[in-house]
Model the fold of this input.
Amino acid sequence: MNRRYRKTIIAGNWKMNKTPSETKAFAEEFKALLPKTKWCDVVVCVPLVDVPAAVRAFKDSRVAVGAENIFYEKSGAYTGEVSAEMLADIDVRYVIVGHSERRQYFGETDIIVNKKVHAALEAGLNPIICVGESLEQREMGVTMELIALQVKSALAGVPAEQIRRCVIAYEPIWAIGTGKTATGEQAAEVCTFIRATIRSLYGARLARGVTIQYGGSMNPENARELLSHEDIDGGLIGGASLKADKLIAIVHAANQG
Done:
């Protein structure tokens, strides 16, 4: 982490878990545990059905609410979809874009991810843009080429004045929900490369202000070591974010780094 130049952000990604009533209960427990000292920003990204409950429950707290997905059009005949404007109107501040599960199960391409990034920014949301490689791609030695393509595609057309509103989350697919975690050195190597890629697009001054998270099975046991690296500015937390005490432990790790 480098708090001198950029935010440290710990964000939970609940995926398809918790009901609205469970969301309220989680929020009450989590707020009671939240440290008074503010070093890192905290975001909880929840399923769409839980968003209103989360916004109400975290109102007047230091926890921002995020969504897990948006559609890239503002309105229209898109049954089942939700626009960025709809979410912004109810005080959602962040949205996850391009998660590997969206890419794998719902066919999201780099072009679709780019459209969603633009939709989020235009509506005033902060996109958390996910990039990452599969185990096969890592073993083939194409990790950096793939990451560069994903980052450049996602940010295509994003103006310089909006780049610091974008968060990049490096999530190696082989470490999501598997219990496997990249070593600190592996994660830091890719996060440093992501910053170098952004530097090539926007210059050093803007690149050093972009928050880059690690998101492959970060947990209370490994968070502090991962966050000790210069270019890892937080985490996008999956399974561990479903338990208030585990997520708060990761927040403490970020505050102590």
In short: Residues 184-202 form the longest helix (19 residues). The chain has a mean pLDDT of 95. DSSP finds eleven helices and eight strands in the chain. The beta strands are 9-13, 41-46, 63-67, 94-97, 126-131, 167-170, 212-214, 234-237.
